[in-house]
């Protein structure tokens, strides 16, 4: 793909059949989301099954989809997620949609990529509470999975690396292109209303795009929560300092994506902002030192709602049945 930049519009030349077609893309700090490219459909399908697989949890009732519900914007819409034994987790569940575009995974960035992230919740005591060795044993006892892993990876002995790799491949397909804002970026002047455009202009002029930029409108940096005013929270989450050990990184969190933000309430790492209006007001005061009027908040919220993209249509997989050798779960253990 070749890109030719004008003052306010970038022109992308793409091959359409055998002819070249020009597609106008506005030169803005937020870029369009591109559709997912599937390189190994069989691996993605296996990962999808494991995504919905509750037998990867000790209780047998929790799957990846429990906290990252693909029907609810890739979150659970709770302040903090509920895991094994009805324990409340310490942080809000970030959306899994467009997570492949992030600089790292988890609020504190402790996982470098989706594959590393996928193994964490399985064995975390407050989440699925399943040691990796037991998770592997469960799948190894299910003939349908043994056959599918052998087909995808060429060996019938399952390991945790194969499990997390296939889950990550499925997650890479969870992108949400073609939002109304994307259509506007690609030159459709009718895609946004005057109020929505005013909100985007205010969003830019206020400085929000310093952190919320790129295709995901965020997710590519770590920033301190509470720049102008301290952020008060009862959450035990320390932010990036829990990974680096540096006190200067305390309360630095990965900037969340704003894609599909209308679906991913409540907001912030502790889920304390119940609505978009509350989140915009708080971010304006604490991060920018600006108190927005009610009308200004309404404009920015109107713009943010245009970032809701087309969620992938996912057919529910049929999971292979357990064998007589498969350990039975105990939800109350």
What percent of residues adopt helix (DSSP H or I)? 25-40%
CATH superfamily: Cytochrome c-like domain
Q: What structural class do you assign from the helix and strand content?
A: mainly alpha
Inertia-based shape: globular
**What is the tally of beta strands?**
5
Number of domains: 1
Number of helices: 11
Strand content: 5-15%
| Average residue pLDDT | 93
Please identify the top-level CATH class. Mainly Alpha
Main sheet attributes: strand count, strand direction, barrel closure: 3 strands, antiparallel
Q: Return residue spans where pLDDT drops below 50 for at least 5 consecutive residues.
A: 1-22
Binding site for heme c 2: 208, 211-212, 283
Pfam families: CCP_MauG (PF03150), Cytochrom_C (PF00034)
GO molecular function: cytochrome-c peroxidase activity; electron transfer activity; heme binding; metal ion binding
Protein name: Cytochrome-c peroxidase
Briefly summarize what is shown.
With 333 residues, the protein is mainly alpha-helical. It has helices spanning 41-51, 64-67, 114-123, 132-140, 143-153, 160-171, 180-185, 194-206, 241-244, 276-288, 294-305; strands at 2-5, 9-16, 19-26, 222-224, 252-254. The chain is built from 11 helices and 5 strands.
């Amino acid at each position: 793909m070749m890109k030719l930049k004008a003052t306010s519009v970038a022109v992308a030349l793409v091959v359409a059949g055998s002819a070249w077609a020009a597609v106008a893309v506005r030169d803005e700090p937020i870029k369009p989301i591109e559709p997912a490219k599937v390189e190994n459909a069989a691996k993605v399908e296996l990962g999808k099954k494991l995504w919905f697989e509750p037998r990867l949890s000790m209780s047998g009732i929790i799957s990846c989809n429990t906290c990252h519900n693909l029907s609810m914007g890739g979150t659970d819409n709770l302040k903090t997620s509920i895991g094994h034994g009805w324990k409340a987790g310490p942080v809000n569940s970030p959306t899994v949609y467009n997570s492949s575009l992030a600089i790292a995974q988890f609020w504190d960035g402790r996982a470098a990529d989706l594959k590393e992230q996928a193994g964490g919740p399985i064995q975390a005591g407050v989440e699925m509470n399943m040691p990796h060795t037991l998770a592997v044993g469960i799948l190894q006892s299910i003939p349908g999975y043994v056959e599918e892993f052998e087909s995808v990876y060429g060996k019938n002995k399952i390991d945790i690396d194969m499990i997390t790799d296939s889950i990550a491949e499925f997650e890479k397909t969870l992108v949400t292109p073609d939002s109304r804002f994307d259509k506007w970026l690609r030159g459709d002047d009718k895609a946004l209303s005057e109020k929505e455009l005013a909100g985007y202009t205010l969003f830019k002029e206020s400085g929000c795009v310093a952190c919320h930029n790129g295709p995901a409108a965020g997710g590519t940096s770590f920033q301190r929560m509470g720049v102008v005013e301290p952020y008060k929270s009862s959450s035990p989450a320390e932010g990036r300092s829990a990974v680096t050990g540096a006190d200067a990184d305390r309360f630095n969190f990965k900037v969340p994506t704003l894609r599909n933000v209308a679906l991913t309430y409540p907001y912030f790492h502790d889920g304390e902002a119940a609505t978009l209006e509350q989140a915009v007001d708080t971010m304006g005061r604490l991060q920018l030192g600006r108190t927005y009027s009610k009308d200004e908040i309404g404009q920015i919220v109107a713009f943010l709602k245009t970032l809701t993209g087309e969620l992938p249509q996912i057919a529910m997989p049929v999971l292979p049945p357990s064998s007589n050798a498969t350990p039975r779960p105990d939800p109350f253990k």
